[in-house]
Amino acid sequence: MKIRYGGDYNPEQWPKEVWEEDHRLFDEARIDTLTVGVFTWALTQPAPDVYDFTTLDRIVERAAAAGRGICLATGTGAHPAWMARAHPSVTRTDFEGRRHRFGQRHNSCPSSPEFRRLSAEMARRIARRYAGHPAIVAWHVGNEYGGACYCDLCAAGFRDWLRSRYGSLSALNAAWYTTFWSHTFTGWDEIEPPNALTEHWRGPDHTAFQGITLDYLRFMSDAMLANYCDEKAAVRESDPDTPVTTNFMGLYRPIDYHRWAPHLDFASWDNYPPDDRSPARMALAHDLTRGLKDGQPFWLMEQTPSVTACRDVNPLKRPGVMRLWSWQAVAHGADAVLFFQMRAGRGASEKYHGAVIGHAGRSDTRVFREISSLGTELERLGAATLGARTPARVALLFDWDSWWALEISDGPSRLVKYLDVVTTHHRALWQLGADVDVLPVTASLDAYDVVVAPALHMVKGDLASRLSAVAERGGTVLTTFLSGRVDEDDNAFLADVPGPLGPLFGVRVDEWDAREPDYVNPVTIGDETFASRLLFELVIPQGATVVGTYGADFYAGTAAVTRNDVGAGQAWYIGAGLDPGGVERVIREVLAGHGLLGPCAGLHDVETATRVAPDGTAFLFVLNHNPEPVVLPPLDGVDLLTGEPPGTLGPHGVLILTTEAAGR
Question: Residues at the annotated binding site for substrate?
Answer without folding.
Answer: 105, 143
